[in-house]
Amino acid sequence: MWIWLLILPLCVGGIGFFAWAMVEQIVKSRPVGNQPMPDLMLMIFGPLFILLMVGLLWLMWVARLVTEVRDDGIYIRFYPLHRGFHGFLWEEIGSFEACTYRPILEYGGWGIRLGSGGKAYNVSGNRGLQLALEGGRSGQVLIGSQRPEELAAAVEATRENAGAR
User: Fold this and answer.
1) What is the bridge-based pairing of β-strands 118-122 and 139-144?
2) Distance CA 128, CA 131 (A)
3) What predicted TM-score, i.e. pTM, was given to this entire model?
4) Spatial contact of 124 and 115, defined as CB atoms under 8 Å apart
5) Structural domains counted in the chain
6) How many helices (H) and strands (E) does the chain have?
7) Closest Cα partner for 145 from 92, 89, 101?
8) pLDDT tens digits along 50-75
9) Which of 18, 37, 62 is the last residue of a domain?
10) Which pLDDT tens digit goes with each residue over 126-152?
């Protein structure tokens, strides 16, 4: 939640500044600053910057990590970036455990990240399910979760029912 305290003022401030600068310089013909940007560049980059900031706010608002435990493995979908689910089959998962991690130090933040601890899929918080993969997809994968203990219990129960190791 604290990330909103950082991103929201920056985005809203950037949008407000470019909107103000475009009105001042293009509509009112008053150059902005000591070395104003040419009007054509402001007409191109102003709206692009505003769209970028609005897009970033939208992405942060709608981003969701959907995790499903199915008979054949664990499936994740990072909405809206993934069109469908990405799976980790029971045969690929050597071990798993609920854990607490440091998102910024270990993975460089939230989202789909690659860090010292392997790959991470996380939206917020600092808790998740750590998978140790083996075989062709060896390495570690962290799946962020607000309730990692419940996720681990569901994985354990489903994996046992599926007859995996």
Assistant:
1) parallel
2) 10
3) 0.76
4) no
5) 2
6) 3, 8
7) 101
8) 999 999 999 888 989 999 999 999 99
9) 62
10) 999 999 998 777 789 999 999 999 999
